């Protein structure tokens, strides 16, 4: 019931609404009760309401309002990208993006692969069922 | 755009120009031109007036003046092809007896319609014309370089005009039996000639033949406006 992810300097968040939807950002300063200053290597430092931010488990070690170069270096050192892409949340997002970008031919090939896999699974299951003494 | 022309005599206020008549004469260098030409301004030699050909007066004048319709010089162009539809693209047909079939686009005919083929062996779609509006262009492309489509045009697909025969009463019954619509052998050969290089190109990509043989349909959860084709 307690909170595990806190809003703090260095907390990595995911923007879940607005023009920068889907971007990973670092909280660089807290402005007031509702807003934070966030920054990311590929965007201009800006303020964002906490309602538009989803906190992640990742936290990096920075001082309040670091320079861009310092921020980028800290992100590299903590390997934010790697940690994110190996986390289950990050992996799910990658899969969603891949599914959305599938072309009609890709969807067809996916269907064939699913059928093949199901066939193999069913064969193994049949073998196992046979071994059970009837 | 041409570079802005310099005006020698700008209009200061409507009706009032900057430079006076005599000053303009000097500015234009008319004195220099006259001097070069020995005191007179150079003039082209007068041209002989072309001999006037006498038109014959018409014998008949209509009683009332008939209005002539305005001339229309418009030349219609074939429909603009969507960016996604290029020769060799796999298209999904949306209407008609082949709806849902995935076919290969060959070329656009002068009427604007698209020339497609199944290939026939793969999905039963022959060489056919299809309207661009009833087609989805996918991003899958087939190598079409080995196919020669130059001989196909709109006339090839037109209805064959039958010779009119005067029918008597008895001939009505016999005539119906003779009008069988069999495809002439020439068209079958054309189909084979177009499809042979295409089939080779299809074999090189795994699953592509099966893809073209299957029909497209919307399943649960598929949102057409979100699908990438």
From TrEMBL, chain A:
<dbReference type="InterPro" id="IPR039660">
    <property type="entry name" value="Ribosomal_eL14"/>
</dbReference>
<dbReference type="GO" id="GO:0022625">
    <property type="term" value="C:cytosolic large ribosomal subunit"/>
</dbReference>
<feature type="domain" description="Large ribosomal subunit protein eL14">
    <location>
        <begin position="45"/>
        <end position="117"/>
    </location>
</feature>
<keyword id="KW-0689">Ribosomal protein</keyword>
<dbReference type="InterPro" id="IPR014722">
    <property type="entry name" value="Rib_uL2_dom2"/>
</dbReference>
<dbReference type="InterPro" id="IPR002784">
    <property type="entry name" value="Ribosomal_eL14_dom"/>
</dbReference>
<dbReference type="GO" id="GO:0042273">
    <property type="term" value="P:ribosomal large subunit biogenesis"/>
</dbReference>
<dbReference type="GO" id="GO:0003735">
    <property type="term" value="F:structural constituent of ribosome"/>
</dbReference>
<dbReference type="GO" id="GO:0003729">
    <property type="term" value="F:mRNA binding"/>
</dbReference>
<dbReference type="Pfam" id="PF01929">
    <property type="entry name" value="Ribosomal_L14e"/>
</dbReference>
<dbReference type="GO" id="GO:0006412">
    <property type="term" value="P:translation"/>
</dbReference>
<protein>
    <recommendedName>
        <fullName>Large ribosomal subunit protein eL14 domain-containing protein</fullName>
    </recommendedName>
</protein>
<comment type="similarity">
    <text>Belongs to the eukaryotic ribosomal protein eL14 family.</text>
</comment>
<keyword id="KW-0687">Ribonucleoprotein</keyword>
<dbReference type="InterPro" id="IPR008991">
    <property type="entry name" value="Translation_prot_SH3-like_sf"/>
</dbReference>
UniProtKB/TrEMBL annotation, chain B:
<keyword id="KW-0689">Ribosomal protein</keyword>
<protein>
    <recommendedName>
        <fullName>Large ribosomal subunit protein uL6 N-terminal domain-containing protein</fullName>
    </recommendedName>
</protein>
<dbReference type="GO" id="GO:0002181">
    <property type="term" value="P:cytoplasmic translation"/>
</dbReference>
<dbReference type="GO" id="GO:0022625">
    <property type="term" value="C:cytosolic large ribosomal subunit"/>
</dbReference>
<dbReference type="GO" id="GO:0003723">
    <property type="term" value="F:RNA binding"/>
</dbReference>
<dbReference type="InterPro" id="IPR041997">
    <property type="entry name" value="Ribosomal_eL6_KOW"/>
</dbReference>
<comment type="similarity">
    <text>Belongs to the eukaryotic ribosomal protein eL6 family.</text>
</comment>
<dbReference type="GO" id="GO:0000027">
    <property type="term" value="P:ribosomal large subunit assembly"/>
</dbReference>
<dbReference type="InterPro" id="IPR008991">
    <property type="entry name" value="Translation_prot_SH3-like_sf"/>
</dbReference>
<feature type="domain" description="Large ribosomal subunit protein uL6 N-terminal">
    <location>
        <begin position="4"/>
        <end position="47"/>
    </location>
</feature>
<dbReference type="GO" id="GO:0003735">
    <property type="term" value="F:structural constituent of ribosome"/>
</dbReference>
<dbReference type="Pfam" id="PF03868">
    <property type="entry name" value="Ribosomal_L6e_N"/>
</dbReference>
<dbReference type="Pfam" id="PF01159">
    <property type="entry name" value="Ribosomal_L6e"/>
</dbReference>
<dbReference type="InterPro" id="IPR014722">
    <property type="entry name" value="Rib_uL2_dom2"/>
</dbReference>
<dbReference type="InterPro" id="IPR005568">
    <property type="entry name" value="Ribosomal_uL6_N"/>
</dbReference>
<dbReference type="InterPro" id="IPR000915">
    <property type="entry name" value="60S_ribosomal_eL6"/>
</dbReference>
<keyword id="KW-0687">Ribonucleoprotein</keyword>
